[in-house]
Amino acid sequence: MSNMQTAYNVAALAVRERFQEQYPEALTILNQVRKQDIAVYSGAYDKVEKVLQCLQIPYTMNPDAKKLKAAIAFVNCSGGYNSQLITNLAQQVENGMWLVSSDWALGYFIAKAFPNTVTNTNRATGDEVISVEASLNSLWSDVVVLGADPQWWLEGSSHPIQILNPDKVRIEASSHDLLRRYDAPVVAVSFDWGKGHVFHVISHFWCRRSRTLTPRHQNPGTDFLKAGMKLSEGGIQKVLQKGRIQANTLNFAQIQSAATATELIAQLCVKAVGKLAMK
Question: How many CB atoms lie within 10 A of CB 213?
Fold first, then answer.
């Protein structure tokens, strides 16, 4: 098993433990998710379904988008999408579904499905790690903690985000590094569309590797469970026991990369499914 696969397995346990300790109502919703509530559409590059598997969240792979009854659909990063899929999923969002996408879906899917919201800048990033600053009250504002040296991995040729309608589109997270290097600081955006909601993030949810930028990132992964996720000592021990690993098996950077993406996926599922349950 690769280090990042192990990191995602541990991150999923940590997210569930964090919900148990800090947001028990969110864990209740997560445990009630049904297979038909979550749809995932294949991509050439990202694999959000692997994150869902680690979280033990049921989902349906590539269901008929025209007959969809899901609360939320994930569209993986790819270099192209079926035009009918774009049309059908856009209509589902219009009717109240949430849609989450990553990286190249920005121009190839989101810009087509939801015109005059966001698009790409026609530039591509390198294979690099960037700093992340979560916007106030965003889904990331809890787990992307300034004191935990937040970072987000760009696995090469990621597409920076250009906002076309700042009155409609909310910046969920940004990066000074992206601003300095590409004059495009946005890491993640969201916006309402019809009765539904769209969330897009640069790069991938399933990260194949991490990088230790500072001495702190070389520290044990348990340091992030404490500083970034604010787990109790007992909670950290439960995660280690369930994950069958030692405290120093993974480093701070590996857990941080996996946990940030995993927490975001879990939070999005909770928000979308919880909204559906309230109807």
Answer: 14
φ/ψ (deg, to 5) at 237: -65, -40
- Per-10-residue mean pLDDT of the chain, 279 residues long, equals 84 96 94 96 93 97 96 96 97 97 97 97 88 81 60 85 97 92 94 97 82 70 88 95 90 86 94 73
Strand ranges (DSSP E) for the chain?
Answer: 38-41, 60-61, 72-75, 98-102, 118-120, 127-131, 133-134, 151-155, 161-163, 170-174, 186-193, 196-201
Strands 72-75 and 98-102: parallel
Return the number of other C-beta atoms located less than 10 Å from residue 64's C-beta. 10
Cα 143 from Cα 130, distance rounded (Å): 16
Long-range contacts for 233-241 (Cβ within 8 Å, ≥24 apart)? 235/17, 235/18, 235/20, 235/21, 238/13, 238/17, 239/10, 239/13, 239/14, 239/17
Provide the token pair at 95.
Answer: 């009717």
What is the token pair recorded at 94?
Answer: 């219009």
CATH 3.40.50.2000 fits 3-277, yes or no: no
pTM of the prediction?
A: 0.93
